[in-house]
Design goal:
The complex is a heterodimer of chains A (119) and B (111). Chain A has 119 residues and is mainly beta. Chain A is built from no helices and 11 strands. The N and C termini of chain A lie far apart (37 Å). The mean pLDDT of chain B is 95. The chains are: A mainly beta (119), B mainly beta (111).
Chain lengths: 119, 111
């Protein structure tokens, strides 16, 4: 199956700093990438959807100036949490999907997640 | 948009018994229904999925049923084992759009 990696797997930062999380599709071209946030004992909440070369589409209530998403290539998307605060502490998971008529089109492939802790 | 409701929120079963999780969806355009298993601190893993042109699908101890008329689908796990303990999420996707997830069911299999 398709493999998606995320880096880092965990990060601790001070309040007010910015943190960048990378999501890579290792063996397929990810036409679309999704970024989710998951708080303890809760479901995955979609933050934004990005298509390669286009601006991300943010879900209602997600601040696009705080959560910067870049999908500059078919194998890499980044999420930057700017001026992070303790309430941004969460598990961030990316997911990728390939283009139509490819093996990676029909399902979404999830990365292993990044645990962000803001002190 | 699509709204997916999932029940129960927690489920405790004796090892060897069956577990059933039910989900309902709101958007009649949804045509793809995956189920994910997530262990603590790990990524969601696709365990089975079904499309709207099929009413039932089975993979060893896991089966999913879909009732398009009633807009609900269910996950059935038979002969449960301790390693089945995890959080299970259902999801629905209308057409080519994004997945909408249920709230999750924490399954505990008692040895």
């Amino acid at each position: 199956g398709a493999v998606v990696s995320q880096h880092p797997s965990w990060v601790i930062c001070k309040s007010g700093t910015s943190v960048k999380i990378e999501c890579r599709s290792l063996d397929f071209q990810a036409t679309t990438m999704f970024w989710y946030r998951q708080f303890p004992k809760q479901s995955l909440m979609l933050m934004a959807t990005s298509n390669e070369g286009s601006k991300a589409t943010y879900e209602q209530g997600v601040e696009k100036d705080k959560f910067l998403i870049n999908h500059a290539s078919l194998t890499l998307s980044t999420l930057t949490v700017t001026s992070a605060h303790p309430e941004d502490s969460s598990f961030y998971i990316c997911s990728a999907r390939g283009g139509a008529r490819t093996f990676s089109y029909n399902e979404q492939f999830f990365g292993p997640g990044t645990r962000l802790t803001v002190l | 948009g699509e709204n997916v409701e999932q029940h129960p929120s927690t489920l405790s079963v004796q090892e060897g018994d069956s577990a059933v999780i039910k989900c309902t969806y709101s958007d009649s355009a949804s045509n793809y229904f995956p189920w994910y298993k997530q262990e603590l601190g790990k990524r969601p893993q696709l365990i089975i999925d079904i499309r709207s042109n099929v009413g039932e699908k089975k993979d060893q101890r896991i089966a999913v049923t879909l009732n398009k008329t009633a807009k609900h689908f269910s996950l059935h796990i038979t002969e449960t084992q301790p390693e089945d303990s995890a959080v299970y999420f259902c999801a629905a996707r209308p057409g080519d759009y994004k997945l909408s997830f249920g709230a999750g069911t924490t399954v505990t299999v008692r040895a």
